[in-house]
Design goal:
globular, alpha/beta, 9 helices, 8-stranded mixed β-sheet
Length: about 250
């Protein structure tokens, strides 16, 4: 099928960051959430250095613990370069409810088209949307009920065109079986190899997320569902993360 061309195209991206109490200080005495504050300025720099990525990518940020909260609403923030000067104060507290994060991610994705239409004045334009991408970062075992979590996950990764490529990063002491089920389409589940150094792992994965966004926006959207983001040999993730295969070993919990 020939590729359709649009006046403007968007690639929605959501970062979902665990801010439960265990993320305050890791086993090495580092403060992972202080490191995570570097996400915003690094994304702003990414936009400045890659104009095409800047034009297409629209970012959202949510945090989750015993609940979930929108820090940067998807579709309202503008370009990556518009993040310059913005900051987020991550406050570690509470438990780890994956389901709350999944529900809020789903809600944000359902609103992105209307928000972009309103905030970017798209009247009269032909607008295309790449499939959204979610980067989900956690160091903890989910504490919410299995039924609630499974229902929220299934609603998020249904069959519609807003069902995201879901990439999960496990850092710290998270166990493989707790995160392995949570990827979708071209996503991956990556488990950091050094449980003692969450802060370093978060720094590494911020760089990986930026590289992945560049790769995403450089691909023909017609092939997006047919390849993995991580088919190429990224030394950064191969050196620091194990790739989990949920199809062979795990069920959604």
């Amino acid at each position: 099928m020939p590729r359709k061309y649009y006046d403007i195209e968007f690639s929605p991206v959501i970062i979902a960051l665990d801010v439960s109490s265990s993320m305050e200080t890791d086993d090495s005495g580092n403060h992972p959430l202080q490191v995570a504050e570097g996400i915003i300025p690094q994304l702003a720099e990414l936009g400045k250095h890659f104009p095409t990525v800047d034009d297409m990518t629209r970012i959202g940020l949510i945090t989750f613990s015993s609940g979930a909260e929108v820090q940067l609403p998807l579709g309202e923030v503008g370009k990556l370069s518009d993040l310059a000067g913005k900051s987020v104060d991550f406050k570690p507290q509470g438990l780890t409810y994956y389901g709350a994060a999944f529900k809020l991610i789903h809600s944000e994705l359902q609103q992105v088209r209307q928000r972009l239409f309103e905030h970017e004045h798209l009247e009269g334009l032909s607008v295309g949307y790449h499939r959204p991408v979610v980067f989900f970062i956690t160091d903890g075992r989910p504490n919410d009920s299995d039924a609630d979590r499974k229902a929220a996950w299934e609603a998020l990764v249904g069959d519609d065109d807003l069902s995201p490529h879901f990439v999960t990063f496990g850092v710290g002491n998270v166990r493989a079986e707790h995160i392995a089920p949570y990827c979708n389409r071209r996503g991956r589940v990556l488990l950091a190899r050094d449980p003692a150094n969450v802060a370093r792992d978060i720094t590494d994965l911020i760089e990986l997320m930026c590289a992945t966004i560049v790769e995403l926006n450089g691909n023909d959207s017609s092939s997006q569902d047919n390849k993995s983001f991580f088919e190429t040999d990224h030394d950064g993730w191969r050196a620091n993360f194990d790739v989990l295969n949920f199809n062979d070993q795990y069920d959604v919990l």
